[in-house]
Design goal:
- The structure is a homodimer.
- By secondary structure, the first copy, chain A, is an alpha/beta fold.
- In chain A, about 20% of the residues lie in helices and about 30% in strands.
- Chain A has a six-stranded mixed sheet, with no helix packed on it. A six-stranded mixed sheet of chain A has the order 16-13-17-21-20-18, sandwiched between helices.
- In chain A, a hairpin with a 2-residue loop joins strand 8 and strand 9.
- The interface between A and B is large, with 112 and 113 residues.
């Protein structure tokens, strides 16, 4: 199929995995910044952070009760309680003034430092007050053993051990640990700024009333939301012009402030598919490296641009066709070293192109080492009838039930069907071939957020 | 167990599910605000939004090719192509000037409105250019049928049908749909402002060097991160004073600007557990409704406060003990109608208390109808030996492998073990009883973000 389209722009399909590798090899993190500890959640750590002390830093009581010498109460029981003289009380944050000698106890609160001499804590609920020769005393009613309810120094962490390494997505538990070790600020990878453009003269702004034959540009907002979800900062640039020279100007302007560009639409074989024309021009330029610094022909580009301001001069097309459905015209290039993703304008294909290529790229730009979606195995609930010469990505629901993982295909076969996109939990991978997939068969699913 | 603690503050344990119901019944959404379309992602919709037109709004071509009358090419084949006269071209956004009559075709781009008379689109790749009596013509090489590659008006949505209802968490796919129907702004539930306090004189600020017997307040930052993760806006208030009267003053001040208060620590049976003392005072006040407007006794509260500024006067304790491990002293109250959560100061118990009670509450404050974590079934990888008189929540990893769901317990039995909190995917529910749970047995897990 597609012979005309392929020959028109000399487009050769690469496999999804190869396309992903081409992107990941070309991309570097955009930078590092410091954020307040709690604001690091969801960001990616930019360096290895270590324990700055042993943890706990001192022997700590695990609960409220009495610090004792375990041997003193080794045989205590409700019937034969052991009575100990209470010589001090220590709250969390304090240090006991008295040493625990045989026959004595110190009242202690959760988290307080153990007094010298004590090696066990008896919980308050296993004691009763007692009078002993006019002094304060406590009756221990349960057998104790040395070490009980005491956390020893270094039990959880040794000073210098790694807490988390570069690329780690920071979770609340990391925040707790890093706060414990005194990290009031965290070095995290900066958020990439991502310019989002739509193409197509049929597009109206979202706020505009409908006109005959025209539709609203809803993809830009969807993609902007996905950029933000991926940790990027979207900048909506609206609609690209229809002429290639004006497109180059718009992309050049965007490159000055963005780390990455996403265009939506105009990548197919239509007569007005401006991104397809531009990518084809880029490939021609790349093939003619020696002519790179010459102005482009008036005919193709419409006007002469200064080469230094023209990203087409310093561009490299990574791929301009992918062996997949939907979204086979999805393309990627580097413009002055920054990634350009040209997604399909069809909402379903745009969505799949983002998940397979853009989200991993944005995560890599934030230092994630292994940003590709990890497939999981699931049992297919419904037959997928139609085969395809290309690997197919079918939106699906993931159902965890009765200890098993099920994938339920959504709106199979209609990549334009927008209604089911919000319901999708994953992309079900249907291998290329004439057969589709049988109900009950094992399939691979790429989870989506 | 716990006889002394229970009797001291007259605390009666409620079941987790009952505690959750008490919270959810007491909480209302905090308000509604408008946000730009793409910024609605992850927020919760505050009203039902409907399709504002049929979708598609007109008959659209699904791809690039030629709009024809399907009957004209019903028997076309590569060997016997059908030649049609090309009378017009229509790009997306345009409306064809010509009607397609038998024997004619209109060049059409993806997404363009179908010309009158045409009922099918033949893809460009299944055609070849042809000359017909000096005019432009096209050779159709594959059989066509009426309706092929055409999306009919209203095929996906009927005008007025609901797209999403109140409380729906907005995903990128919703953004796309809502943009299609012209929603440039979305009504979403406002983010609750959440005051976070820590208690305990042992606590140092995160940035401070360690001192003997003291530790840094890392829980506040962890909880702030969890608040933000739950859609709330955390405000870190630092350490609460140690005296109950000063605590009341601090909470009163926080109530003026926050929709919810979280305190961490000081809820147990220790002599300095200021939140436990305060909650006990609240319960006493509530029991003596007729005395509500009287100043509190000097003895307990340290100083006389104006009743109108004193949230203890207008408070109701929802629960001050939960039948669970860890975190049994976890408490909740209403202060002037706003929720107060008093979490345990132990990091593991603080974490569990947040997931079971605070996260659902914050989601409900943002209009979510069913905010409780939904348990899923998993197969336990390792034996959990020790039983417990209370239901236990053990942090675990969730592993989806080979189409099955496995739960691997983490750091079992040590609620203070912070090291494993960042690794947790869920809380494994071990029912109360003497036995624990056997490896390979089916367990319930509450997923955590």
């Amino acid at each position: 199929m597609d012979e005309r389209g392929r020959s028109r722009f000399n487009r050769r399909a690469v496999k999804v995995a190869d396309a992903q590798q081409l992107i990941l090899e070309a991309i570097r993190p955009v930078g590092v910044e410091q954020v307040a500890l709690w604001q690091g959640c969801g960001r990616r750590l930019a360096q290895t952070l270590q324990a700055t002390s042993d943890w706990p830093p001192f022997a700590r009581s695990g609960l409220d009760g009495f610090a004792i010498r375990g041997a003193d109460a080794a045989h205590a029981s409700p019937e034969h309680p052991v009575t100990l003289q209470v010589i001090d009380a220590v709250a969390a944050g304090q240090v006991a003034r008295q040493r625990v000698e045989p026959g004595t106890a110190v009242r202690i609160m959760t988290g307080a430092a153990m007094p010298e001499g004590a090696d066990a804590v008896v919980m308050l609920e296993q004691t009763a007050p007692a009078g002993l020769a006019g002094q304060t005393a406590v009756r221990v009613k349960h057998a104790a053993r040395p070490g009980q309810n005491v956390a020893l120094p270094g039990e959880e962490f040794r000073c210098g051990s790694a807490i988390a390494g570069p690329g780690t997505v920071i979770r609340p538990g990391h925040i707790g640990l890093l706060g414990t070790f005194g990290y009031a600020e965290l070095p995290v990878y900066a958020r990439p700024r991502v310019a989002v453009f739509a193409t197509g003269s049929e597009l109206l702004p979202v706020a505009a009333p409908l006109e005959p034959g025209r539709i609203r540009d809803s993809n830009s907002a969807m993609v902007a939301a996905m950029v933000a979800q991926s940790g990027g900062e979207p900048v909506l640039f609206g609609r690209l012009p229809d002429r290639v020279d004006a497109v180059i100007e718009a992309l050049t302007a965007a490159l000055a402030e963005a780390d990455c560009i996403i265009t939506i639409g105009g990548v197919s074989v239509g007569d007005y598919d401006v991104m397809a024309i531009l990518l084809s021009e880029m490939k021609r330029n790349h093939a003619l490296k020696s002519e790179l610094m010459k102005p482009k022909s008036q005919e193709t580009l419409g006007q002469t641009l200064e080469p230094s301001s023209d990203p087409v001069c310093f561009s490299k097309v990574l791929f301009d066709r992918v062996a997949m459905r939907p979204g086979s015209p999805t393309s990627a290039a580097l413009l002055n070293g920054k990634p350009l993703f040209a997604l399909s304008g069809n909402p379903g294909a745009c969505y799949v192109g983002f998940e397979l290529f853009v989200r991993p790229a944005l995560h890599r730009m934030q230092g994630e080492l292994d940003p590709l979606p990890r497939p999981l195995e699931a049992e297919l609930t419904d037959q997928i009838r139609k085969g395809s010469p290309h690997e197919r990505y079918v939106r699906c629901k993931l159902i965890l039930n009765d200890g098993r993982v099920f994938a339920e295909p959504l709106a199979f076969g209609k990549s334009s069907m927008m209604a089911s996109i919000p319901q999708a939990d994953g992309l079900l991978v249907v291998p290329s071939g004439p057969e589709g997939a049988a109900a009950g068969s094992r399939v691979k699913v790429l989870p989506v957020p």
